[in-house]
Design goal:
Distance between the termini: 35 Å
Oligomer: single chain
Largest sheet: none
Number of helices: 5
Order of helices and strands: HHHHH
Radius of gyration: 17 Å
Structural class: mainly alpha
């Protein structure tokens, strides 16, 4: 197995451990660490390596990343309001992912309608 295949996975595990450690000391720092674009960076690295840096592939992938921000933001906004309303974790996750799925579906439909 190549380093470019293993290293992103190892870095992902390190970030998860870092969030778990930071959470005990500073919730805000843990949240910032969790929302850093590390996942996107690792995904870009994996796709770039797998496609020898092909510019068209990277452009297409980057557009997908940008479109993916909208449903993810919807999930986080829903989580905020649902926790604020007193929901427990499982119901919040179910509703949050439902919001994410609906927004993703809308984006897919808009992209198809516009031919993007």
């Amino acid at each position: 197995m190549k380093t470019q295949d293993v290293l992103p996975v190892v870095l992902s595990i390190v970030v998860i451990i870092l969030v778990a450690v930071l959470e005990k000391q500073n919730k805000f720092a843990a949240a910032i660490t969790a929302t850093m674009p590390i996942g996107a960076t690792l995904a870009i690295w994996i796709v770039y390596s797998a496609n020898s840096g092909d510019q068209q592939t990277m452009k297409d992938f980057s557009v997908g990343l940008l479109m993916g921000i909208i449903p993810s933001l919807g999930f986080l906004v829903a989580a905020f309001f649902l926790f604020r309303a007193g929901l427990k974790l499982l119901p919040m996750l179910l509703v949050g992912y439902s919001v994410w799925g609906v927004l993703l579906g809308i984006i897919i439909l808009i992209r198809r309608a516009l031919g993007l």
